Amino acid sequence: xxxxxxxxxxxxxxxxxxxxxxxxxxxxxxxxxxxxxxxxxxxxxxxxxxxxxxxxxxxxxxxxxxxxxxxxxxxxxxxxxxxxxxxxxxxxxxxxxxxxxxxxxxxxxxxxxxxxxxxxxxxxxxxxxxxxxxxxxxxxxxxxxxxxxxxxxxxxxxxxxxxxxxxxxxxxxxxxxxxxxxxxxxx
Length: 187
Description:
- By secondary structure, the protein is of the alpha+beta class.
- It has a single domain, classed as Jelly Rolls.
- Helices cover 15% and strands 28% of the residues.
- It contains three helices and nine strands; from the N terminus they run ββαβββββββαα.
- The strands form two sheets. It has a six-stranded antiparallel sheet with strand order 1-2-7-4-9-3, with helices on one face. It has a three-stranded antiparallel sheet with strand order 6-5-8, with no helix packed on it.
- The longest helix is centred in the N-terminal third of the chain and has 11 residues, at 48-58.
- The protein is globular.
């Protein structure tokens, strides 16, 4: 498979968001890592198979599924999640609830990447047509859970999130990139 022409790091538009805890969603309050969005990192001609091949080649995460995003607000306590849009577009909500005043709403389109730290609530608000993402998790992750903001999750899941290590490199760019910079304290 030919090499993918990623947007060069020097011209990549990246947004980062620290989202305070809201209700029973920890968001980014438990660890120093923000929600990171790479806008148009991949070319708009990208396919799901090409994304999966690229992620596997970089070797930081393992592609696990192709689907859309659930409409139910949820978070993961066992892993950080990497989402890459391979088709369509959608409005997504990060922060655990559509009524969270600190939520982040994103119009995600083909080629966008979202690095979602464990604990960050996320949900699909509006599928604008054929929205599909490749979901990936750190290499060696055994499984991922789905927490929905119940009070009882605050005990074990929140403790688990605090103990997680950050990604071992940038899942898109490898040894350099925003994930590496943040992990090294270069925010």
